[in-house]
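note to self — DONT lose this again. spent like an hour looking for the file last time. sequence + predicted structure for the chain T wanted, 146 res
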Amino acid sequence: MTIEEQLSTVETLAQALTAERDDLRSTVEKLTVGAADELTAVKAEVVTKDARISELTVAFEAATAEIATLKALVSDLEASKVSASKEAANIVAKTGSQPVLAEQPAVQTEKSVEQIREEYSTMKPSAERVAFLKKHQAAILYGRTK
């Protein structure tokens, strides 16, 4: 191989390497520009999400404050609540009348001898039956009330 041929081969190789280098440079530039564009888009998305997080944080803090206020209001209302019957008794007392109690003790009517004997006969043997007999002995044994 002559020098001219070697020079020609080297020039051909140099041109091929230059073309390959230019092609790689072009590819790297495209990737760099694409990566830069993606990075810019990601940065914009991060800024948007940070703004939304800030909004949600403010809303959360406001809701927390409102919950605390409502809890305080509920505890105040619980402390100051009065039952309806107590309030009615207070109103009646202000008018000077005596309130009528809803749970008045029942007036005990005297039982007849037959009722006492029937109640005693339905009871099963127990300490309660013995106590009932002692209390109503006259009616059960002799047929008379006190």
